Amino acid sequence: MSQPGRNILVVRDVCKSFPGVKALDRVSIQVPSGVVYGIVGENGAGKSTLMKILSGVYEKDSGTIEFDGKVIERTTPIQALRRGLSIIYQEFNLVNTMSVGENIYLGRFREMGGMRGVHKKARALLDSIGSRISTYAKVGDLSASEMQIVEITKALSFDSRLIIMDEPSSSLTSEELKRLGKIINQLRDKGISTIYISHKLDEIFEYCDIVTVMRDGCVIDSRPVSEMSRSEMIEKMVGRTIDNEYPPRMHCVGGPLLEIKNLTTRKLHDVSFTLNRGEILGFVGLVGAGRTEIVRAIYGADKVRSHTLHLQGKQTRVRNPKEAMVAGMGLLPEDRKREGLILPFSVEANITMASLDRLTRHGIIDRSKEKEIGERQIKNLNIKTPSAQTRTHSLSGGNQQKCIVGRWLELDPQILILDEPTRGIDVGAKYEIYTLMNRIVEAGGSIIMISSELPEVLNMSNRVLTICEGRVTGEFNPETASAAEIMSRAIG
Amino acid sequence: MRNENKLLRFINQNLVLLGIIVLVTVTAVIQPKFLMTRNLTNILRQMTSLAFVALGMTFVIIGGFIDLSVVGMVSLVSVITASLINPIGQVGALLCGLLAGALLGYLNGTILTKFGATIQAEVLFITYGMSSVFIAVGLLVTNAETLRIARSTRPYDMFTAIGSGSFLGIPISILIFAVILAIMYFFQTRTLAGRSISLMGGNKTAAYLCGFNINRTMQMVYTINGLMSAFGSIVLMSRVTTATATLGTGYEANAILCVVVGGTTLAGGKGNVLRTLLGVFLITLLSNCMNLLGLSTYMQTVMNGAVLVTAIWLDNRKRL
């Protein structure tokens, strides 16, 4: 066991290059035992690369890594695990069809003395962090936060002394986040260190003892959290001063544009609301409350039992995305990698894919116009990409998101639906997305925005609807209502 | 260092072409007969029917699916065409054959979309099942007998021309293929319909949310494959001058082999019909070489399997 005060992990001058980019430039950090160590930085700052080197997915070019006093030359993910270093990725590594206990001890059933031992030991571990999840429950039936607890328990089962959590909160509601915070505190009490990577600065301030700011592959600063202010941290991350996290709110709301009445599906009950011209309408609710289902139903992507949709006072039928697009809608889906982008395709192809219809004469695509559109949106949105032909999977999250925004801007939609537009993207890119939203409403468009980040919705929207269990439970003016008031309605 | 990388990249990107060159050189040295015009023309003739089927299969695989029913389609189309020659004449029979192929493909696409087959395993088994149905229908129609296409006699001379005729020294079947290939290449690279196939293969959900009709695209892909299989069937039938209800045996595996060797990824989205042609070249050359070198049929099967596995391995390595 490591003593408190000792460094569990020492990284010295680690460098790593990929063809064309220096991903890590002489990075050094020291993680003491029993602390929560925050790492912040914009996408592309090198956080993930560093974690992948620690866990053995990548090999470092130079520098030294000491774990628990021993120099580690090269490692593989399973060796790292056995040494006591676990990593919990944003996308969980769990087998949905197997039970909680089986997942925790996956591949080690024999060592545990068969299934009975597996469940017994898993139970003990879960108890030790105060979780009451049944070890026999199927992982696929668990909520996101419960899955995360399973991941943490799995890490504990390897006697991990350092647990790296990569964006642990991205799929959690604020309630679940509190529970995660409790567990992290318990880990600290046991002398287990946590590296907490997050874009959400609130969480860094709440949970972390020490924080390292990274930018462009370098460590900019490492300090106790108590010695760094929020604005200082943002400044260091982006390398410039951001006076405000949000641009000023737009006030260009006009008359009603879209009226939805009695929208009912398998998950939604009698949802009615109006979207006005030039308005940003925010949807607030827990994950799974039905926010995404509402916008998908309006967009024609899901089956609807009954509803009426009036667009500019005229009843309109939207039975599939094509008809939604014809009616002037655009959708930026929740999961940009699975539903938004075609990752192996070029930036240009991803931008133009919704407007190909307009570029086609007699069935033939006008390639030069297509190029024009790609270039135009890359410039318009300031998408950082080596070229229009670069595949989108090599872009950072923010730039990927901008490709999808550009796709819709090209169509000049009246109604743009943004489902978690800033999930997993960095502060600088977030600000750019906000500015874009303002540009859209200024030009007369309307936006429906779904976000799990309450401050974001409150600062960007003209009006907020709370959604709970498939119903609209409240309507607020975010300039006058308090966050607590809104949240209490969203929880139901 | 940089030059070395460039060379490696060039080799990596043109592996198939290099493979063809190596194969030609080695075989020509060991067996000079290989380079005789007659052998080369022969190879081209053998290649055409497979090339047609592989061409259609390229679209299916770019679209993110697979079609094992080409065996059944090639077989059934040959039976339909051959048995229609006497009643309605050869031109009518040819057109009916092509139409039948397209319809069989459309039937595949419709069944897949209607039954909501979304995962590869379902598509695999449904098309496999359809193949058995097509073969069985052919057996019922022909009573499991072989239909002969008499050479050069009046109602059959068009098929003889397709099977063994030449124009300016180039086999007619190759000329037909070149025209269709050019059309399909244009279709794939320049038209909206062609693009919609690769978008669907790249990410079905994203394409759907951008207004593409996935069901219709799927039906189109399978219809194209049916039509191409029909072309392949007619060329094959003309060359071997017989039509049977099992004529297409082995074509599904070989077509997929050619597509993958050509560099179209089984993951969908990316691919190119011209590259498939290189794949067809390589595979046909390989089998010709092995014949000339006197390898047994069993050994040849082993080789084909090894090539397929290697191609998939190389493709996966490229994707990392």
> What is the chain-wise order of helices and strands of chain B?
HHHHHHEHEEHHHHEHHH
Overall outline of chain B: globular
The main pleated sheet of chain B reads as: 2 strands, antiparallel
Oligomerization state? heterodimer
User: What is the CATH-assigned architecture of chain B?
Assistant: Orthogonal Bundle
CATH topology of chain B: ABC transporter involved in vitamin B12 uptake, BtuC
What is the count of DSSP helices of chain B, taking H or I runs of 4+ residues?
14
Report the portion of residues of chain A in β strands: 15-25%
- Straight-line N-to-C gap of chain A: 46 Å
In the CATH hierarchy, what is the class of the largest domain in chain A?
A: Alpha Beta
Within the largest sheet of chain B, what's the order of strands? 1-4
Sheet-strand content of chain B, in percent, reads under 5%
Low-confidence stretches of chain B: none
Please count the beta strands of chain B (DSSP E, at least 2 residues each).
4
Could you name the CATH homologous superfamily of the largest domain in chain A?
P-loop containing nucleotide triphosphate hydrolases
As a percent range, the share of helical residues of chain B equals over 70%
The 3D shape of chain A can be described as globular
Record field, number of beta strands of chain A: 22
Proper CATH architecture of the largest domain in chain A = 3-Layer(aba) Sandwich
